[in-house]
Design goal:
The protein is of the alpha/beta class and 271 residues long. The protein has nine helices and eleven strands.
């Protein structure tokens, strides 16, 4: 039987990001993904001058109550963008009610040293608590700084990046993969898991697309559910994410249209 995953994230109706990335990736990796939208948007927000945003907190509570009444059990939980501190509290309780699930929290809070538009300081505080319920967390450097209460850094020495990963792991009890860490020699994913620290380097690209973090996190969870070790899962997720970025560039996509996952889905299906 396929493993099941509650996929908790926003749904953008135009451009590839969030659930429109997570769902096809998990499905092609043999995971039955069950979406729980945390917001409904006309498009992803990066690069668009205006957009429609609907908070779905009331729907989340109703869906979670229905799932609880049915005693539904999930093999995994993927938590991405959460639109309020109240939503964080709902998802925290859901995770606690699913103790057997492999839980990945991507603490979507900000990038480039700034909070995303709708994110509040209250949400940051709530997220600092939610990551302590996770088995795996995948913050970028902005989010890692917020979770640790450290100043944002634009450049890292490798040892500093590994120190941050280790501190996050010790503070949360989670396995940690800090994404998009700009080190002198290369960009890396800085990891701490099972008592070991290491970095996974990857090629620098002169482009950045919405949805790359969603792609990496869903790949990582899919490979972990496929019984890969944490280090192997990170390396595979980095490889497939890099391929997706390269092919998105080759296809001439506008950055605001998000990451193109279709070519990668074909390769994943062959594994």
């Amino acid at each position: 039987m396929q493993p099941t995953c509650a996929a908790i994230h926003d749904l953008s109706c135009y451009a590839k990001s969030s659930l429109t990335v997570v769902l096809p990736v998990l499905e092609v990796m043999g995971v039955e993904a069950c979406p729980l939208p945390t917001a409904l948007l006309s498009s992803q927000t990066d690069g668009f001058s205006s957009y429609y945003f609907r908070d779905t907190s009331a729907d989340i509570k109703g869906i979670l109550d229905a799932w609880k009444n049915l005693d539904l059990r999930f093999d995994a939980i993927y938590s991405g963008f959460l639109g309020s501190a109240d939503q964080v509290a709902l998802i925290k309780q859901f995770i606690q009610d699913q103790p057997a699930a492999l839980t990945l929290v991507d603490p979507v809070l900000g990038d480039g040293g700034s909070l995303y538009g709708p994110v509040t300081d209250q949400q940051v505080t709530a997220m600092q608590q939610l990551v302590c319920c996770a088995d795996v967390i995948t913050p970028n450097t902005t989010e890692a700084a917020l979770l640790l209460g450290r100043p944002y850094q634009e450049q890292f020495e490798t040892e500093t990046a590994l120190t941050w990963a280790r501190e996050l792991a010790l503070a949360t009890g989670s396995k940690v993969a800090i994404t998009s860490v700009p080190c002198r020699e290369a960009n890396v994913v800085a990891c701490y898991a099972d008592g070991a620290s290491y970095v996974v380097p990857y090629q620098r690209f002169n482009a950045s697309y919405p949805g790359c973090g969603d792609l990496f996190a869903s790949l990582l969870l899919g490979f972990l559910l496929g019984k890969e070790s944490f280090q192997s899962a990170v390396e595979l997720a980095v490889s497939f994410t890099s391929k997706a970025i390269e092919r998105t560039i080759e296809a001439g996509y506008e950055m605001r249209h998000g990451i193109s996952v279709s070519p990668v889905l074909v390769e994943l299906a062959k594994r």
